[in-house]
Amino acid sequence: MTTVGDIYRFIDGFAPFRTAMDFDNSGLLAGERETGVQTVLLSLDITPDVVKEAARLPAQLIVSHHPVIFHPLRSLRPGTAPYLLARCGIAAVCAHTNLDLAPGGVNSCLAARLGLHGLRAVHTCGGTGLAEAVAGETDRAYAPREFAEFVKRALGCDGLFYADGGRPVTRVGLCGGSGSNYVYEAAEQGCQAFVTGEAKHHELTDAENLGVTLVAAGHYYTEDVVIRPLLERLKKAFPDVAFRRAEASHCPAKYL
I need a labelling partner for 71 at 20 to 30 A (CA). Which of 26, 61, 153, 165 fits? Predict the structure, then answer.
């Protein structure tokens, strides 16, 4: 039978956990490697509702992007996701920044969803040399608003906000999640647009002045793009295991 450890090692093969950034807490965060698995639930986040869904299936393992334990726990309170994992005996493998950086990971999947080609690194991680932000070419020129509308459709966003760079977009930089700080390097490398999940006021102002259309499409939507490809990759590697996407997984931000 496939074990938690088998799935951990498979993910480690293309997104090595040792490449996770220093601040991160990726890896096997709940359960034991020796546990056999028949059903695995995949989700961007491990929330209490996701754990309850896993328990109903029942699933023996949840694979997520965001770590279910990020800051040190000072208590284990009933109703929280870590408590429910322990109570239900469900393991958790969390592939966070190692999956952001990996070829075929978050940024690769985001670029594919946006139809970019000719990908190259905008910024690399000093410790690993892996790309933290990438850039690629569009298949045609977009006006700034038109490009923002295209991103919204491509990612299925409920809403987004953007700074208008004031010039046609043909070269796009991106970083899933919180990557707006890379907009400056993207501008230096000739990008007319940059797509990420979140952006601060001063970054939007700076982007506008730099002539870069900075699109903040939501942390969830710019990273959830990796879940379906990861599921398909796992399904192909472990045909004896049922892999399911969590129905409880959702963007917590609501738009008026």
Answer: 61
Split into its structural domains, the chain has a count of 2
For 55-80, the DSSP string reads: HHTT-SEEEESS-S--SPPS---TTS
**Global pTM?**
0.96
Instruction: Say if 244 falls within a structural domain.
Output: no
How many Cα atoms are found within 13 Å in the side-chain-facing hemisphere of 251?
A: 20
Backbone angles phi, psi at 176, to 5 degrees: -65, 150
Strand partners, 112: none
Give phi and psi for 237, each to the nearest 5. -75, -30
Taking the CA of residue 221 as centre, how many other CA atoms within 13 Å lie in the half-sphere pointing to its CB? Answer: 22
Predicted pLDDT at 111:
98
Same domain (yes/no): 160, 197: yes
Q: pLDDT per residue over 115-133, tens digit each? A: 999 999 999 998 899 999 9
Can you give the CATH number for the domain in which 18 is found? 3.40.1390.30
Q: Are strands 39-43 and 27-30 parallel, antiparallel or unpaired?
A: unpaired
- 79 touches 85 (CB < 8 A): no
Look up residue 36 and give its DSSP letter.
Answer: B
**Which pLDDT score, from 0 to 100, does residue 4 have?**
98
Per DSSP, 182 falls in state G
Q: Which of 83, 6, 91 is nearest to 41 (CA)?
A: 91
